[in-house]
Amino acid sequence: MTDNAIDIQGVTKRYAAHTAVRELTLRVPTGSVYGLLGPNGAGKTTTIRMILNIIAPDTGTISIFGTPSSDPKITERLGYLPEERGLYRKMQVRSVLRFLAELKGVRAREADRRIDEWMERLSLKTPEKDWGLAKVDELSRGMQQKVQFIGTLLHDPDLVILDEPFSGLDPVNAQALKDTVVDLKRRGKTVIFSTHLMDNAERLCDSVCIIARGDKVLDGPVTRVKDEHGKRNIALALNGGGMDGIASILRDTSLVKRADDSNRFFEIEMAAGADPQVLLRRVIESGASVQRFEMIQPSLHQIFLQKVSGAAPAGEAAAWAHVEDGMSGHG
Amino acid sequence: MAKLWAIIRREYLERVRSKWFLIATFLGPVFFAAIIIIPAWLASRSKATDEVYNTTILDATATGFGQRLSVAIAGDAADRKKIPQVIVVAPAELAAAESTATRQVMSKEKVGYLVVTEQTVAGETAKYAGRNASSLPDMSQIRNALRQTILASRLEKIGIDNSRTRELTFIPLNFSTERITERGRGGSGMASVMFGFAIGFLLYMTIIIYGQTIMSSVIEEKTSRVAEVVMSSVPTNTLLAGKVLGVGAVGLTQQVLWIATTYVLLRLREPIMVRLGAPTTSFALPDISFGAAVLFLAFFILGFIFYSSLYAAVGSAVNSEQEARQAATPLMIMIVFAGVFIQPVLLNPTGTTAQVLSLVPITSPIIMPIRMAVTGVPPLEMAGSIGFLVLGCFAALWLASRIYRVGLLMYGKKPTMREMARWVSYSR
Q1: Å between A209 CA and nearest CA of chain B
Q2: I need a surface site. Which of A197, A283, B224, B320 has the fewest CB within 10 A?
Q3: Into which CATH architecture does domain A231-296 fall?
């Protein structure tokens, strides 16, 4: 037995026109919740598909619980929820789930028992209505998403891989998914998910890996990643007034290295050697009404923007624009 | 194995339970029954109808010719009612009698009337007018009765007595027809050509229908992204194999049901014909040996694997049914090419064209069974045909599996032929 659920060593995947993943090395500790972060086109889905042995790496090795990922037996310990979701539309819900379970080596009778359990837990089966007997077509989108979760987890996998699990989820199902992830961790399962929603990642993940354009930018436990980026950030919240003054302060590069402007809330990264007290004084002098001024650890969002734009070869502004494009690509 | 079985079972059960399958499986035999029974029924229509009895004979001969003609038209119909009514008229009153008879026909009291005169007895003219004047069988029966009666009158004139006359003119000829082809076979040859055509047509239709079924099935899995979940559980080759085998089993089920019901219908043909009042002609089924049946099955399975794996590859490369229709054109051309040769090969099953086409995997699954049905195929040719087809299947499966595993994960624009060729070279 190994401590790593996933061990990726120097993996590269090239397609005709571009390199999707370049020399990627990362380890996912068993029993952790792991976030794979990056803008669209960063290579997250390619990495996930290689972990699942849907595609093979050109070079490098991937092992899952100490077994090569190409071993067919290992697939029965994996659960996968792809980014784009769908089911056989004309099939009965129960038949679809039984089919998915059988592909993971669960016997029909055992599958039936677990389907009932899950359907009841996610209130798809109530004394009045058993949606398991309906066709997939007849279910609402939210219900179909629930069925898809069940399909991913029916065989009680030790490693659950979720590709952009929050995209397209309504708030109720998003909460159900978070609860499920926490529950899986409590039961000693490993969960790895890709996302570009930093808030979710920050709250859920034990460790993260940020990749951009096929390269790993950083990885490690969330707490360590944040520590390494120091307490150099200021959270500033205003009660309105003096906005013009603030803007000119934030443009002062001797004081501010970078600022994330959310209109009334700012996350500010101090320039090297700058004194936060000077910043506070200048903000007050500008006539703004300060509601909050706090020295904080940078958010994952900030680190992400900083790191991903830092990795940009073609000038910072362009890279920022690129990242923002990527972020708005999904809900 | 258990996973392959799960995929096969899903493909099979979902399709067999579908409305489309039930309708096609039910309508198939109805169609075959129509093919078998309608021609015989139409043939039975060529017998004269009862209408010829509901006619009037205006007899202006004053020799009792009309009475004898009436009996001749009735023939062996013993029923007294089934006999044309005879009205003896003087030649001068004929015009008036004709207009009365015309009115009767117009009021639908009678179907028609026949005028016999001196010229009729002389074998020169006779006239019929009626609603069924365009019915060839009715007119032919009346004409035959006229000839027979004229002949009888002539025989009587030269002194042959009444009973001898009847004896001499009564010719209950049963005229059977048999076709001779260049192979010298008659009726049973015709049956085997029909059988060969049926086999060829069935294979042709099944390959087209179920090839496209596989293609749609792959497109559904790709567009609904189920494919990705399945691919994370089983190797793509297993998925492809499960699809081909599952859908193939549906096609086989349908054919077995069709063939079985057709066989039963052929067995029941005579009772059905008797019910319809049609003559029961013998219809001998060609004898199929067990070995030949196994070979038919082998060609069906191999031909199906060859085409359906290519259809699956096309389905995996495209993003919608509309794109698929266009992308599958080359496959369609290949199958139609084979279909075009069904008739030429039936007519000349031992020619060079037939020999070459039954070696090429594109055409052999359809052409070779046809040849087997209508003629003997040398064992060497048979072995060559199956050998090349098996090789063709391996090539098609290899090509399809490589396109399939890449295509299923590619979304967006439709790939060009060059891109698909590059996919084949991808490691995975």
Answers
A1: 22
A2: B320
A3: 2-Layer Sandwich (3.30)
